[in-house]
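stuck on whats below:

***
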Amino acid sequence: MTRDYFGFDFDAHIRSLSQKKSAARPGDGAVAAVRLDGDGRIVSATTDAAALLGYAPHELRGRMLVDLAAEGWRAAAEGVTARILLGALESSELLLAGRSGRRTLVRMSARPIDGGDAGDHVVAWTEVQGTPAPAAVPDRDEMDLRRLAYDLLSTQEAERTRVASELHGGVAPLVIMAKFMVEDALQRLMRGAYSEATDMLINVTGRLRDVIGEVRRISMELRPSLLDDLGLLPTIEWFCRHCEQAYRTLRVERIVEVAEADIPEMLKLEIYRIVEEAVSNAAQHANAKTVRVSLRRRGDELELMVIDDGSGFEAAQLFYGNACLLGVGLQGIKRRVEGTNGRLLLESTPMNGTVVGAVWSLNRHVGAAA
């Protein structure tokens, strides 16, 4: 039984991967495995994995598959990494370049690591004997999917960075200040200066209230508690007011012609996220002055519309051109609508504003909920 510094039984793990995912047979070549974190970087490697490329195991740490790919195979390596991190576990072939320049074609299979950090995968590969085939040139749809996958990962990382910055810059100083004030109050108590210590502790409670306020603000930005406590309609109202306060030149009109009870629970978060994205896009990127948000019930259908008077864009690109040029925002809206069996409406031309809309059948969602 071989155990590397992952702490996993790689012999059993690789045998399982090879039997289920790889066409390679025992003896076809070297067997190797690496562990990827949620960002696609190698955090550990077996001795075989490193030796196959002429490295020591520790030299692979921090690298990505794209760093090990042979010339002409970097795009393929990006695609393999994206598919692994997005949960696609089918086997893939990739041409790797070793320290000496020797090129090795390997067949890879991956699985998430049970009990490991979120997003971690073990990737096992076997050397494929024979002449490597040239890297296939991906078609436009595949290239768009690859770019979108990496855009999504980049967006996730940017959100993590933003939250870390908020905690470091907003919460941490308040906590540190409160800590020093408590220590100061304790010293005053030990000296018998009870009145001064009391005043200091009263000030500490004010700092702790500020901490609570900062944490609540960050939490609301991640997922508004109002959505669970009061429902969708008050949450949309709160968000629109928040946007008007944040963007002084922006006016957000609200039209609501539906009862909270008529909105399926499974749609509430999706509708909120669509409104959040569409209004934020209008304010941040389109320089809109007015945004109209309407949510109406029309017979057996629920209709959401977000209309702005901003700079607009060429909407045809979303359907007929390079979809990723429009960024993750509109792609995310499209996925949310289609993922909930809705119909997406998108109208925009340069300098003529944008209409983002969605329609859902209430009968379908009521039936699904039942």
